[in-house]
Amino acid sequence: MKGRLGTLNNYLIIYxxxxxxxxxxxxxxxANFVLGxxxxxxxxxxxxxxxxxxYKTDLHIDGITPDGMLMFVGTYTIMTGVYSGLFFTNxxxxxxxxxxxxxxxxxxxxxxxxxLVSLRYLDLGMPIPNVxxxxxxxAIGWNAMEIPLTAYSIVxxxxxxxxxxxxTYCLMIxxxxxxxxxxxxxxxxxxxxxxxxxxxxxxxIYGRWIQRIGVYVLPFLVITNFAPLAAMNALRIDQMxxxxxxxxxxxxxxxxxxxxxxxxxxxxxx
Length: 270
Hints:
The structure is a single chain. The protein is mostly helical. The protein has one domain. 77% of the residues lie in helices and 0% in strands. It has helices at 2-28, 30-57, 66-86, 88-100, 103-107, 113-119, 127-144, 151-172, 174-177, 186-197, 208-217, 220-231, 237-264. Helix 2 (30-57) runs antiparallel to helix 3 and helix 3 runs antiparallel to helix 7. The longest helix is centred in the N-terminal third of the chain and has 28 residues, at 30-57. The chain crosses the membrane at residues 33-55, 67-88, 154-174, 180-196, 216-235, 241-258. It comes from Paenibacillus sp. BIHB 4019. Keywords: Membrane, Transmembrane, Transmembrane helix. InterPro entries: ABC-2_transporter-like (IPR010390). This is ABC transporter permease.
């Protein structure tokens, strides 16, 4: 146990160094940093048009009011920021590592290869507009629905937000992992991005079978639906249990897939 805690501490220190190096690198080119923020802000404004339409039409989905939908859209916006900041750059680079053979140099590093390849880079600018706007939307919706602001409800919301981050990692890394077997996985990545964007509305907007697939087969809908549902006290016990089990099962599955991918890897340099 003591050894595992020591290993965990070492990896946290290494991750802290990743954050520091990425921050220094991004601040070195401040114009690019500011330009990236501006582009992301423009995308965010276009997404907010959904919110305007929802409020203007007074749309209700399965009993969820426009204020409730604001919490779902806000959670989706937060998770988009988290994904773009923590994982996107790494998953885009992974197929390149396989194709050009740079993975050879990483394999000999004395740390977990999966940790190094999938978490090495962070984008610290792009998430800012999404996270700030997402938190604001959740706060406004929370207040408008008069949900009690208790420690229990906040912890529950944050817990399912954390579960959403783990599930995001496990699902969005899959197209990158398949690059160990296939030359081009861009088409599959596009499909996953499209499924991701389907998360910007509450899941009751979809039919029953799509909801079941989105919760239990490819649990994209868990990522942005379970946290606001938990805060609204509308998450069933079986959904809570699945929300706790899904990230564990997905982490194990990704680890198994990763090990098979590495065994299948042959250096591009021969």
